[in-house]
Amino acid sequence: MKALRFSETEGLRVEDVEIPKPSPFEVLIKISRCGICSTDSQIIGGYVPGFDHTLGHEFVGVITESPSDPSFINSRVVGEINCKCSGCDHPDPIFRRNHAPKRTVLGIIAKDGCMAEYCTLPLENLHLVPDDITDDEACFAEPLAAACRVAEQGMIRPDENIAVIGDGKLGLLVAHVIATYQNKNSTTTSSSLSPSSSPASVTCFGRHQNKLDLLEPVGVTGIVVTDTTAADYAGKFDIVIEASGSPQGILLALALTPPLGTIIQKSTCSAVVKDPKTVLTWSAVANDVVVNEKTVVGSRCGPFPPALEMLRKAETKQLVKAMLSAALPLEDGVKALEEAQKKGVVKVQLIC
After folding, report:
1. Alpha carbons 32 and 30: distance in angstroms, whole number
2. Is the Cβ–Cβ distance between 204 and 215 less than 8 Å?
3. H or E stretch including 316?
4. Overall pTM > 0.90
C-alpha cells in the first residue's frame, strides 16, 4: 500500500509499505480520507524527535478486518488517536483516554498514522459515523473533538467574555464550539456538552479577515490582530483560549487576560528554532502568571460523541465545508503538506 511517511534521515515521501496486520484487539481500516493537521507540519519541523512513521491522525474509513468482533466489518468509522496501554487502570476515564502512561498515539508517538491506504486502531477507539455526515465532514471529527475538550473541561460559564487566539483550523473550531455549545455543569463526561440558551460572548483574534468571517453565523466577533491589539484589549477577557499554533500566542493570551484570569492552552509547537524572533524566555511568561495570579490550563484530545453530533448540524456543516481548502490524492501527499502550510490555506485533506 502507499503511505506518506517522514523521518529525519529520509525526509517526507510517499512510499510503498506492507499493509499492517491488526492485533486481536485492533481492526484494519481502509482509509477513505484523512486531514492534514498543524501537528503534522510540526512533526516535520522536529516536534517529535526521532520520528520515523506514517503521518496522520484525522481520518474516516471503513473497517475491513475485525478479529475480535466481525460484525463491525464494513462499518464507516472515525477514531480516537490515543491507544492506551492494557495495564492502565486509573479511575479517571479521561486520564485513561488522554494520558495512559504507556500509550501510543496514531501518527505521532510510536504508531503509524492514517496518511495511508490502511491503518490499524483498537476497536474501542472507534466511533460509527452517521449516514448524514459525508466523508469530508467526518474528517473534522478529531479536531472538532479536541475543540470540544475545552467545553468538557468545565471552566467556561455563560455570560463570560471569552477570547480565542488563532484563526487557523483549531482556532476556528474552538470558537465555533464555545459559541454554540456550553458545558452544562461541572462534570467531565461527554454528555455534559449541550446547547446553551445563553452562550458566552466569544471574540476570535486572527490574521485573516476572510477566515474570521466564517464565524459570523454563530455570532463570534472577529478581530484582526495588529501591533496595538494587546494594548487595545488588555485584560478584557475572563478566559483566553490560545490556539494560534505559534510560540508567540501565549504572550497575546497573557495580555488579554486580567489578574486571576484563565488561559486555556491548545497550541503545541516544535522546539526547533527556525526564527530567533519567536524564542520566548520563561520569565516572559512566568512573571506575568505569578505576579497576576493567572491560571494556565492545558487542553488536549476531546470527546468524539458531541463532535459527531455537531457535525450533523447545519451551522457546523457550513463551517467545515468552508474550511476545506483542497483535497488531493494520497500519491500527491508531499505536495499536499506543502499546500497545507501556505498562507491563507485552512484545511487540506488527502483522498486515499
Report:
1. 6
2. yes
3. helix 314-323
4. yes
